[in-house]
Write a structure and sequence with these properties.
Distance between the termini of chain B: 52 Å
Strand order of the largest sheet of chain B: 2-1-3-7-9
Order of helices and strands of chain A: HEHEEEEH
Number of strands of chain B: 9
Oligomer: heterodimer
Strand content of chain B: 5-15%
CATH architecture of the largest domain in chain B: 3-Layer(aba) Sandwich
Helix content of chain A: 25-40%
CATH topology of chain A: Ribosomal Protein S8, Chain: A, domain 1
Order of helices and strands of chain B: HHHEHHEHEEEEHEHEHEHHHHHHHHH
Number of helices of chain A: 3
Shape of chain B: globular
Largest sheet of chain A: 5 strands, antiparallel
Distance between the termini of chain A: 51 Å
CATH superfamily of chain A: HupH hydrogenase expression protein, C-terminal domain
CATH class of the largest domain in chain B: Alpha Beta
Number of helices of chain B: 18
Largest interface: A-B, 45 and 44 residues
Helix content of chain B: 25-40%
Number of strands of chain A: 5
């Protein structure tokens, strides 16, 4: 039985922010400023930072959703969302069991994980050639 | 070993794309608490990583550490065992029993002499010739000394193996000792905690197989990536401490508002572990999030360090300057506050000296 099978009510009633979410927002702002000026990309690992469940939701709410959302289906799903602030992406990787294995804020034009990888491109090209030669014969 | 032993090759064989591998590496970097952005470096190292042989010996212990490991979910235990390490002996998890089980250990020790990783949970009784804990008629002490000889490194899993733990608590009837008390000529890494956080166990194993060496350690032999900060430094309730808002009993208004548990005996300020960020039970929470103070289980002699409900000696007022710095420094605040000299804090904990605001600024 996975944890998902147990009904857990996450207490989000705490209306008091203790300031952790605000601190992350400043961090994001300073990195976004750098990105805007020099194109320097960066990553923030949310799993290494302290949050109450309420503050995590608060951060989600503040960053919101922008124009793009993408799903990756590779050893579990991944959710890649551009927040309402262009250049600020929320990348969440899940494993096959649906647990979060990495939760990142990526400051970039496009998150790295969305780019086609040269190795995969070459392998795909081989497959495509195989199909063409098969249909030709 | 041939190239088909590398992780990259095994993953390619399973039809796993490069992008999926990069995702896996992002998860691994997060798991190992490496700086974000290390995923590329992890990918390069991991692509060539070989499966190390692992021998796990359980001594004077409660099996809680193994219970913890089997609840590790990222990566799953199965993938860790089958893809990343070769677990050649673990008397609780292995299928073989009796002579066959003991033989599998002997075989692995011979085949991978000088190369295998030795994991130990439980302390080692040394009184009366080590008679208080034996496996297949041999004392734990004897088994440890034999297995340590051919080990590339030893990982002491749990507070018992790392520091003696509960078996060593007063009056220590079995003469229990930690691995590092007995083995002096091998690199030893201590993954303390009662039990240790599952992903810290797998994170350290992942680090070893990714980079082929043990991670950076603190003065107690614990990996800095996970034990570099105190629970207090990374606690989401820390801002309440800075504001002087404390729960006084377990059911007062402060407790209900989620205020700091310091006055209820929380050992967070003197305990080094990653619970506050890594969390437990698949990331559900950690003791303080459930409303109970930290009991300091990853520190030496935690069982004999006084009541779990007696507050630590430390400042409860005049931290406004520090709180001010915290507000300005933003995300870095928790880190900045940890600048307090750890050795000093530890000394104070042991001698019950008063910690002053000045100490926080030093």
């Amino acid at each position: 039985m996975s944890l998902k099978g147990i009904a857990i009510d996450v207490e989000t009633a705490d209306p008091h922010s203790v300031g952790n979410a605000a601190a992350i927002l400043s961090e994001i702002a300073s990195r976004l400023k750098k990105f805007a000026a020099s194109g320097e990309t960066s990553l923030i690992d949310l799993k290494s930072l302290p949050f109450s469940p309420y503050e995590y939701e608060q951060l989600r709410f503040t960053l919101g959703r922008g124009e793009i959302s993408a799903n990756l289906d590779a050893i579990g799903t991944s959710e890649i969302i551009e927040t309402q602030f262009p250049g600020v992406w929320w990348v969440t990787h899940y494993n096959v069991e649906g647990d979060i294995v990495a939760d990142l804020i990526e400051i970039a034009a496009v998150p790295n994980i969305l780019l086609s990888q040269p190795e995969d491109v070459r392998a795909g090209l081989e497959r495509l050639h195989a199909i063409i030669s098969q249909s030709a014969s | 070993m041939k190239d088909h032993d590398t992780l990259e090759h095994r993953l390619t064989e399973q039809g796993i794309s490069r992008r999926a591998f990069l995702k896996f590496c992002a998860a691994m970097a997060s798991l190992m608490a490496l700086p974000p952005g290390s995923a590329t470096a992890v990918a390069a190292a991991l692509a060539q990583a070989k499966r190390p042989s692992v021998i796990w010996l359980s001594f004077q212990e409660c099996t809680g550490c193994t219970e913890s490991l089997t609840r590790s979910h990222s990566p799953t235990l199965e993938s860790l065992i089958f893809d990343m390490i070769s677990l050649d002996y673990h008397h609780t998890l292995q299928a073989a029993s009796g002579f066959a089980a003991e033989k599998s250990r002997d075989d692995a020790m011979k085949a991978y002499y000088g190369k295998y990783l030795l994991l130990v949970d439980g302390s080692i009784p040394t009184k009366d010739g080590g008679v208080y804990s034996t496996i297949a008629g041999r004392s734990n002490l004897d088994l440890l000394q034999e297995a340590a000889k051919g080990a590339a490194a030893i990982v002491a899993v749990g507070t018992c193996a790392a520091f003696g733990g509960i078996p060593m608590a007063k009056p220590n009837p079995t003469g229990a000792m930690a691995v590092s008390d007995l083995i002096k000529d091998k690199p030893i890494i201590n993954i303390s905690g009662c039990p240790p956080i599952p992903v810290v166990i797998t994170g350290v194993l992942a680090h070893y197989l990714t980079f082929g060496e043990l991670p950076a350690l603190d003065e107690l032999g614990r990996p800095k990536a996970f034990y570099g900060e105190t629970i207090h430094d990374r606690c989401y309730r820390r801002p309440f401490y800075d504001q002087g808002k404390f729960a006084k009993t377990f059911d007062d208004e402060g407790a209900r508002n989620g205020w700091c548990l310091y006055e209820l005996g929380c050992k967070g300020p003197t305990t080094h572990n990653a619970c506050a960020t890594t969390k437990w039970n698949g990331g559900t929470g950690f003791p303080i999030e459930a409303g109970h103070g930290c009991i300091g289980c990853s520190e030496p002699n935690f069982w004999d360090a006084g009541s779990f409900y007696t507050p630590l000696p430390a400042p409860t007022a005049e931290v406004t300057t520090v709180a001010g710095i915290a507000a300005v420094a933003g995300a870095g605040a928790a880190v900045a506050l940890s600048a307090l000299d750890r050795a000093k804090k530890k000394h104070m904990q042991q001698t019950h000296e008063k910690l002053t605001v000045k100490d926080l600024h030093d």
